[in-house]
Amino acid sequence: MKRKLIVIVTALVLSAGVVVLYLALRPSEASEDVGTVTVHRGKLVELASATGTVEPHVQVEVKSRQSGEVIEVLVSEGDHVVPGQLLVRLDPVDAERAVREAKVALARARAELAQSRASLDVAEAESSEAVAKSDIRNRGAELGLVSTEDQRSAASSAKVATANITLRQAQLQSAQAAVETARLAVEESDRRLAEMEIKASIAGTVLAVDVERGSIVASGITAVSGGSTLMTIADLSDLRVVGDLDEAQVGRVQADQDVTIRVDAYPTRTFTGRVYRVSPLGEEESNIVTFDVEIMVTDPDANLLRSGMSADLEIVTARYDDVPLIPVTAIKGQGKRRFVELANGEQRPIKTGPTDGVKMVVLEGLSGGEEIVGPGGRSKGGGHGDRDHKRMMPFGPPPRGKR
Fold it and tell me: Which has the closest alpha carbon to 245: 318, 313, 316, 317?
């Protein structure tokens, strides 16, 4: 019984081996499948991708020209302001005192000016009198009625009186200059007093308020640190997306190209935009060179976007209509030669154009309607043998490690 059982098991094993060998050697139906695709004509959009951040085109950090203590904050985050609207008021006590001191100094300078004018008038009168006396002495000396000493004394007095006029004129000019200086000081003190009230320079939305009542702020003009930021205002009606564009794509991007904008806050919709500018200067970081690209948001619902949102950008660098399109993986190459394999085994040289990563434009060699061998397929006619097949490689560089 054991011997019969062994014989039966051996026979079953041999039969199974014969069946497996037959199935392996039999030509499969899948290998005879042509695996072709039809070249069709259609549209292709060439894109360049970038990432960026939503930013207002105009954003201002409000600072004070004067240092001082905040006594009143008149706006809050989210408020809309217009040019000239009062935002923050600083303590005006010191500035008001400076105005009063400047006005007192101006009054004193004007009094000194009046005194100088009066002195000049006196000097001119004394000079006229001295000159007249000198003339009389001269005529008297000619008639022998006046001594030479009196004549010389009168002439000297006339010269002194004339010089005194010059002195008084100089004093008058100095007094006039002092009045002008005092007047400018009053204007400066008035300006400083007015600057204790910080007003909006642009129309926009208050994004952040960085001070509160009692805060001490430093001047944005005189402080070495650049001064204290009181608040930030931005014009949210004109939003931009500033992104980083890889150097491999920068040559295809230019102003006025259409852009699709996606943000995480609205995953089910996109926003439209337009390229505003591309920076001519690249920035290198971690051996990667990128170029700033500024996108103007043109979407009618741009108000949904918020400053600081991250955004993904798809820039339309080219559009092609009614052109032959083939799968990128159907393109083969030998050296610099590019070709596709037709269903009948013919190797058709082609000239390729842009791609969207899946399909590629054929500029020369195909017109549409041809049957070509798709990725993973082979021709029905067997236009090349196994050796030729090994020499052909997909479009693109060879796998790493193979030459």
Answer: 313
Question: Which has the higher per-residue pLDDT, 11 or 330?
Answer: 330
Residue type, 172: L
- Amino acid letter at 111? A
Arithmetic mean of pLDDT, 147-172? 80
Closest of 110, 116, 113, 106 to residue 182, by C-alpha:
106
With DSSP H G I counted as helix, E B as strand and the rest as coil, what are the percentages for the chain, rounded to 5?
35, 35, 30
Cβ-contact 311, 259 below 8 angstroms: no
List, for residues 79-99, the tens digit of each pLDDT value: 999 999 999 999 999 999 999
Calculated CA dihedral for residues 349, 353, 357, 360, nearest 10 degrees? -50
Classify domain 59-91+198-234 by CATH architecture.
Answer: Beta Barrel (2.40)
Q: Note the pLDDT tens digit of each residue in 197-247.
A: 999 999 999 999 999 999 999 998 888 888 999 999 999 888 999 999 999
Query: Domain 49-56+236-319's class?
Result: mainly beta
State yes or no: pLDDT of 195 exceeds 80: yes
Question: The whole model's pTM is what?
Answer: 0.61
The fold for domain 94-194 equals: Helix Hairpins (1.10.287)
Q: Per CATH, is 36-44+321-394 categorized as 2.40.420.20?
A: yes
Q: What is the pLDDT of residue 303?
A: 87
CA distance linking residue 316 with residue 249, whole number of Å: 11
Q: What percent of the chain has pLDDT over 90?
A: 45
Q: Which residues have a Cβ under 8 Å from the Cβ of 77 and sit 6 or more positions away?
A: 206, 207, 208, 209
- What confidence tens digit (pLDDT) does each residue in 266-316 have? 999 999 999 999 999 999 888 889 999 999 999 999 989 988 899 999 999
Strand residue runs (E) in 16-58: 36-38, 40-56
Domain ranges of the chain: 36-44+321-394, 49-56+236-319, 59-91+198-234, 94-194
Which residue has tokens 């796998």?
Answer: 399
- Which residue reads 């204790």 in tokens? 196
- Bridging pattern class, strands 68-73 and 86-90: antiparallel
